[in-house]
Amino acid sequence: xxxxxxxxxxxxxxxxxxxxxxxxxxxxxxxxxxxxxxxxxxxxxxxxxxxxxxxxxxxxxxxxxxxxxxxxxxxxxxxxxxxxxxxxxxxxxxxxxxxxxx
Length: 102
Hints:
With 102 residues, the chain is an alpha+beta fold. The protein has 3 helices and 6 strands, in the order ββββαβααβ.
């Protein structure tokens, strides 16, 4: 079962990968599988932001400040990217919930 990613979740790039910036785009090598992944310039920006632990909300705020994009669209695309990266085990997710546990 996959972890649900929320705005309050903290995300960080997984340790078992290396990456490089290629003129604004990013190439990631998953050291466990030996598979390469490519990210467009916006994906590369997200990837650079999550080299240190950040909340999804903080990443979203940064993207909204840096790009001329509608908030709902940016949020949907960010969550899709993060879920894809998490599904490929390129991303670690720590879910923080508001309120008491049930």
